[in-house]
């Protein structure tokens, strides 16, 4: 059984999916603006919701830090930029693929 975990590297604006410490996929992401930075630390995915509506795109995965998550976007041009209120934005097709791969309780490390 795979041992998935996620590392979000804010400096290169990339989300890495690891299986037993081996990177199996990487995805470009949009992250928090200077005034609403994406928080660094250790979290876990605590819930998932398809088609959450609004600016959250095709999928939402909530983190153990309240009000923060990994989600899609209705503005694909924002990926790769400092644009969010602290959440991690992904292309809709990427967040759906990731959500289908990782279970709830997957560890998420966000590093500077």
Features:
9% helix, eight-stranded mixed β-sheet, L,D-transpeptidase catalytic domain-like, globular, two-stranded parallel ribbon
Write a brief caption for the model.
Keywords: Cell shape, Cell wall biogenesis/degradation, Glycosyltransferase, Hydrolase, Peptidoglycan synthesis, Transferase. The protein is built from one helix and ten strands, in the order βββββββββαβ.
List the helices and strands and how they pair.
Layout: E1 4-9, E2 14-19, E3 22-28, E4 31-32, E5 41-50, E6 59-63, E7 69-71, E8 82-84, E9 88-89, H1 92-101, E10 107-111
Parallel strand pairs: 1-10, 4-8, 7-9
Antiparallel strand pairs: 1-2, 2-3, 5-6, 5-10, 6-7
What report would you give on this structure?
- Belongs to the YkuD family.
- Pathway: Cell wall biogenesis; peptidoglycan biosynthesis.
- One of its GO terms (biological process) is cell wall organization.
- This is L,D-TPase catalytic domain-containing protein.
- It holds the Pfam family YkuD.
- The protein has 112 residues and is mainly beta.
- It has one domain (4-111): L,D-transpeptidase catalytic domain-like (Beta Barrel), CATH 2.40.440.10.
- It is built from one helix and ten strands.
- The chain has one helix at 92-101, and strands at 4-9, 14-19, 22-28, 31-32, 41-50, 59-63, 69-71, 82-84, 88-89, 107-111.
- The protein has an eight-stranded mixed β-sheet with strand order 3-2-1-10-5-6-7-9, with helices on one face. The protein has a two-stranded parallel ribbon with strand order 4-8.
- β2 (14-19) and β3 form a beta hairpin.
- The chain is globular.
- It starts with a strand and ends with a strand.
């Amino acid at each position: 059984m795979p041992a998935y975990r996620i590392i979000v590297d804010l400096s290169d604006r990339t989300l890495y999916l690891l299986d037993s410490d081996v990177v199996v996929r990487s995805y470009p992401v949009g992250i928090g603006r200077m005034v609403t930075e994406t928080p660094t630390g250790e979290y876990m995915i605590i819930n998932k919701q398809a088609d959450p509506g609004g600016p959250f795109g095709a999928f939402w995965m909530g983190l153990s830090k309240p009000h923060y998550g990994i989600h899609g976007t209705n503005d694909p041009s924002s990926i790769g930029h400092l644009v969010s209120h602290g959440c991690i934005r992904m292309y809709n097709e990427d967040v759906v693929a990731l959500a289908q791969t990782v279970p709830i309780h997957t560890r998420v490390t966000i590093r500077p």
